[in-house]
Amino acid sequence: MKVIYRRLPSKKIRCAATIGVFDGIHLGHQFILKKVIKEARKQNFSSLIITFDILPQQFLLKKQLFSIHELKKIPCGYIADFDQKTALVKSLSLDYCWFLKTSQFLLKLSPKDFIKYVCRAFAIKKLIVGQDFRFGYRARGEVNLLKKLQGEFGFDLSVVQKKTKQKRPISSSYIRELIQRSEFKMVNKFLGRNFSINGRVEKGRGIGSKLGFPTANISLSGYVIPSPGVYVGYVVIKRKVYLAAVNIGLRLTVSKDVEEKLIEAHIINFNKNVLGQKIKLVFLEKIRDERIFSSYDKLKLAIAKDVRLITSKYSTRLPKYPQPIVL
Questions:
Q1: Which of 165, 272, 279, 282 has the CB geometry, 3.0–4.6 Å to 234, for a possible disulfide?
Q2: Which residues share a beta bridge with 229?
């Protein structure tokens, strides 16, 4: 698969394509992408996904175009970051993945101008989108407008009905809600894999080491994060998998209006220095809510109890990862 970001192809390539945010590449997205591949092979075209490098809502948040009150109503946060999305699309064997650079210019294009923009680099002959596809400024474009534009831009449009799982529509917004509620069994059924995040290990306060339970403090990169508490997880370091006790805690940011989530992973039976390394954290289940302890001794006892519970339920010997993982 060829990833296109800043440099576009020198000549237009005939293709079957789809357009969308595609956060998470969940089972509904995979269904659409497989239809694109099938149609491309049938017509002897290339297969193409057109998506965004940054989620539009994340971009608007970064540019402070949302108020705090508006933000709380908007389901923000990645399900899969840029690298994960690229790897997931590549695993499906598409020919091209075009990451649009999210910008105010792009988000302010009218629906028609947006379609004109994406058709400038590829000769899109077949366009396949989901029934709830929206595009252009303030998402004012929808499939009925696409039907009117297909003749002008030379593509044949196919609209895919939303896929369901256990009688619930599969959608990124619903998956974000499930992640925030720590309902990983449902999350994984909708994703078709375990939910995981990538992060770099940064220097922490060193409290875990003083208590005898050193932790890897994982920097966050805009993911949607589960609720505060203690979790069982797998940590993947250089393609090796380790069992971990994971704590998600809260602290107020400088503005005191937004709470920041901190992730610390105690990697069981592991004593190497991973400071500065990029690691993957795979969430399995929540074992308790966040609690405040009156002393370090009580905190130490609680952590020891958490680790015993985790090791009694999960094997610390992991010869291979038990479910699909994007490394």
A1: 282
A2: 248, 289
Instruction: Report the CATH fold assignment for 2-172.
Output: Rossmann fold (3.40.50)
- What is Dmax (Cα atoms) for the chain? 71
Residue type present at position 224: V
What is the reported pTM? 0.88
The domain spans of the chain are 2-172, 195-313
Collect all residues with Cβ–Cβ distance below 8 Å to 73 and sequence separation of at least 6: none
Helices (H), the chain: 27-43, 56-62, 68-72, 82-91, 104-107, 111-118, 143-153, 172-180, 184-191, 207-210, 296-313
* 14 membership: H or E segment, kind and range: strand 13-19
What gap in Å lies between CA 299 and CA 133, rounded to an integer?
48
DSSP 28: H
Q: Which whole-number Å values give the CA distances from 291 to 229, 278, 318, in the listed order?
A: 8, 28, 30
CATH of domain 195-313: 2.40.30.30
Kindly report, residue by residue over 73-114, the tens digit of the pLDDT.
Answer: 555 689 999 999 999 999 999 999 999 999 999 999 999 999
Q: Between these two residues, 216 and 317, which has the higher pLDDT value? A: 216
User: Tokens representing 230?
Assistant: 């203690």
